Amino acid sequence: MSVEEPVELIAVREDSGAFILVLSTGEELEVATTSMPADLPELGVALAPRMLTQLREAAERKIIARRLFSLLDRRQQPRAKLIAKLEEKGHDPDAVAGVLDRMQEQGIHSDRAYAEAWCRDCLLQRAVGRRYLVDKLRIQRVDVEIARAAADAVLDSVREQQLAFEAAARRWRRTRLPSDPADHDGRRKAEAKVIRFLQGRGFSTGLAVTAMRETKPESDLQEDEEAQ
Description:
The chain has helices at 49-74, 79-88, 93-105, 111-125, 130-139, 144-154, 157-172, 184-200, 205-215, 222-227; strands at residues 9-15, 18-23, 28-32. By secondary structure, it is mainly alpha-helical. It folds into 3 domains: 9-109, Winged helix-like DNA-binding domain superfamily/Winged helix DNA-binding domain (Arc Repressor Mutant, subunit A, Orthogonal Bundle), CATH 1.10.10; 111-155; 157-228, no CATH class. The radius of gyration is 29 Å and the shape is rod-shaped.
C-alpha cells in the first residue's frame, strides 16, 4: 500500500480580503478569511489530512462563489440552473448548494427573489394569469410553493382580472363572431375559442368565462376595427 506524501504549508499571503496558501504540492489555495482555521500550522510543517481536506473544500467554495457572482452579474437565474452550470464545470452539487445557501442568508440570491423578478418581467410582456407564471417557473425547476408565493405577491386578483379582460378583448378582435344572432352554434364555438385561449394564458376557467362574456362584441364588428 502506497503512503501519501505529507503536504507542507510553504507560504501564506493575504490578497484582497482572502488568504493564498501555497502547499508543497504546488497547489495555491485561495481561502476566505472566515474559513481560515485557527490552528493553522507554522510554515514548513505538514498539514494534518483533515485540515488539508478542510482547506481544499474552502478553496473550492471560494471558486464557486466567484463563478456564481460572475453568472449572477450577467442576469439573475434560478438556483437549479446555477447548480447545473457549476456541476458542468466539475464542482460538487452539494458544495454549490452550500454556497447558495450562504448567499440566500446574506440576501444576495434566492429563488423567491428570482421568481418575483421573473414574474414582473413576464407581466410587462404579456397578459397572463397566476397559473401561467407558476407553470413557467416550475419548468425552470423553481419549487412550486416558492413559485406560487411569488406569483401571488406580484399578481393580485384585481390585477389578474384586468389582465384577463385585456387578453379577452384582444382575442375577440381576432375571433370571428357570426353576424347572425340566430347562429347559436357558431357563437358558442367562437366563445369556446376565446375561453380556451384565456385558459392557455393561465387564467382560471371561471375568470376566463367572465372575461369572455364581458368583452364579447355585440356583433362581428372586429373586421371593421381591423380595417381602420
